[in-house]
Design the sequence.
C-alpha cells in the first residue's frame, strides 16, 4: 500500500486537483491500496470527490479520538470518520505522540475505537536518533508495540517511521529497514501471539529517487509518504514505481 500523509498542509483547491490528477495518473492495483490522508477538515470534501469520480483512492484520517459523542472540543470520533467512508486511520504518529503526549494507554484505546468501527489502524512507531545511536532501537520499538497487546491484529498495519528520518531528507537504508521490519514482524508473532500476517510499511523521507529501492525489499509492504505526497505527479510516480 502507498499512503499519502498530507499532515497540516493543503487547501480545498489542492485537494481537488490532487484527487483528480492521482485518479488519472496512478495505475491502480487492487493488491496495492492507494490511501489519501488529508487534514480532517477535508475528509468530507475528499469523500464527495472520490465518490463523484468513482476514484479507487481510499481515505485515511490523520486522527481519531477514542471516546464517542463526548464533550471534547476539537475531537473527532470513529462514527464521524465512518460517515466519510474513512477506511484507514493513522494512530501513534511521532508528531502526535510528541505534541499530544500520547501514551500507550491512549493509543491502545484509539486502536480499539478504530477497530470497533471497522476502520483499519496504521499504527506508527519509530525511534529518535539518540536511541538509534545507543543501539537501543529494538527495545524502544518493543515498548511502543506493547500498545498492541490484546488488540486483534487482523487488518492492522504497522508503519515504521524513524523520527530522525521524518522530514530530514535522510531515509533509513534498505538494510536497516529490513532488519527493523523483520524485528517488528517477529515481535508480533512471539510477544503478541499473533499468527496474522502483519503488513509493515516504511515512512521517513521517501521520495522519487529512493522509493523503488526501499520497496524492493521483501520486508517492506508499503510506503507512508509525507512531504513528497503533496505533489500529485510525484506521488503518482512513487505509486507507479513501487
Ligand atoms: P516525510 O516523508 O516528509 O519525511 O514524512 C514522513 C511521515 O511522517 C509520514 O507520515
Sequence:
Amino acid at each position: 500500500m502507498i499512503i499519502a500523509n498530507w499532515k497540516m498542509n493543503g487547501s480545498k483547491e489542492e485537494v481537488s486537483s490532487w484527487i483528480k490528477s492521482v485518479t488519472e495518473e496512478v495505475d491502480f492495483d487492487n493488491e496495492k491500496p492507494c490511501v489519501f490522508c488529508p487534514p480532517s477538515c477535508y475528509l468530507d470534501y475528499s469523500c464527495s470527490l472520490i465518490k463523484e469520480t468513482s476514484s479507487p483512492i481510499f481515505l485515511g484520517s490523520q486522527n481519531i479520538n477514542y471516546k464517542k459523542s463526548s464533550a471534547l472540543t476539537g475531537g473527532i470520533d470513529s462514527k464521524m470518520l465512518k460517515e466519510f467512508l474513512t477506511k484507514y486511520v493513522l494512530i501513534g504518529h511521532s508528531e502526535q505522540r510528541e505534541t499530544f503526549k500520547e501514551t500507550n494507554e491512549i493509543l491502545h484505546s484509539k486502536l480499539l475505537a478504530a477497530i470497533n468501527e471497522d476502520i483499519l489502524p496504521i499504527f506508527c512507531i519509530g525511534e529518535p536518533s539518540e536511541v538509534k545511536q545507543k543501539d537501543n532501537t529494538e527495545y524502544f520499538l518493543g515498548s511502543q508495540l506493547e500498545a498492541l497487546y490484546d488488540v486483534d491484529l487482523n487488518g492492522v498495519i504497522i508503519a515504521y517511521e524513524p523520527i530522525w528520518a521524518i522530514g530530514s531528507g535522510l531515509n533509513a537504508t534498505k538494510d536497516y529497514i529490513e532488519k527493523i521490519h523483520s524485528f517488528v514482524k517477529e515481535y508480533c508473532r512471539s510477544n503478541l501471539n499473533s499468527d496474522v500476517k502483519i503488513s509493515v510499511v516504511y515512512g521517513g523521507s521517501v521520495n522519487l529517487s529512493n522509493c523503488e529501492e526501499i520497496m524492493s525489499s521483501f520486508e517492506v509492504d508499503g510506503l507512508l509518504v509525507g512531504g513528497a505526497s503533496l505533489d500529485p505527479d510525484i506521488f503518482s510516480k512513487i505509486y507507479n514505481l513501487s
